[in-house]
Amino acid sequence: xxxxLDAQGGQNSEYATAVHELGDAFLHxxxxxxxxxxxxxxWTAYGRKFNANIRLVKELTKKVLKEKKLDMIMRSKNGxxxxxxxxxxxxxxxxxxxxxxxxxxxxxxxxxxxxxxxEEVDVFMFAGHxxxxxxxxxxxxCLGKNPEIQQRVREELDEIFGDDMDRSIxxxxxxxxxxxxxxxxxxxxxxxSAPFIARECKESFTVLDHTVPSGGxxxxxxxxxxxxxxxxxxxxxxxxxxxxxxxxxxxxxYAYVPFSAGPRNCIGQKFxxxxxxxxxAHILKKFRVTxxxxxxxxxxxxxxxxxxVQPLRLRFExxxx
Length: 321
Fold this sequence. Notes:
Blueprint: H1 13-30, H2 38-41, H3 45-77, H4 89-94, H5 98-108, H6 114-145, H7 147-161, H8 171-176, H9 178-190, E1 196-200, E2 205-207, E3 210-212, E4 217-221, H10 222-225, H11 269-286, E5 287-291, E6 300-301, E7 307-308, E8 314-318
Antiparallel strand pairs: 1-4, 2-3, 5-8, 6-7
């Protein structure tokens, strides 16, 4: 976004806390139909906390937008149009923060309002950080339980980076990390970031002799869909090779939907994959990962993202040892 919250450094950590509490409140409400009416929910402890967190999140978004917009207007007036003054001219032309692109569009076309910009920012901020963090955690856990697969990832990294493990990861490198991408996809199959999605039916339809009426809400359990042995033989096993191009032939296009599907699929799925490749590559270039708990001891809990009840215990050892 081009704006540093510095949450890990202790600044604006209430934003991250609010996002987690919003997820907990949402699930608490979903499981209790008597809390569906707003006039009841808002008087409960969860409801009051939920509304307070909504205000906190929106206020921070407005603050970021206001500061960034003012900065862009002032720089434009002063003739300082370069957004990255410490980089070369060619790099400045190529790179712009997503928030700056949105605000540029807003300044050129006022019909794209600040509220519209805020909604896009909320989507990326709210839906884009916890999902990616959990996917990274589960992928590292799966690699830590499967050392032979981890070794194959390291061999791919060695082939690409050679002895220069400290160099930056470029776009071309990301396209070559094909096995690592399969590893991420298989981790998302076993532990999808979003364990379920819901859709409102615009018209009635029949499935398995059951009629779903128009206006009804269908909940798709992605975590169960990905365990179908017809699409994924031995579904409990971690097998990245499932996602080799030749092995995906004939598989139903909706058998694997970690980012949902259709017109309301995840807007940031390509960005998420690039982000995960970069983070995992940096870790696995330097460290060997070992998972300390077996799968039957790792219990997940229902939430907006697939989370573990107890911390995932991982050991990191330098690769040169």
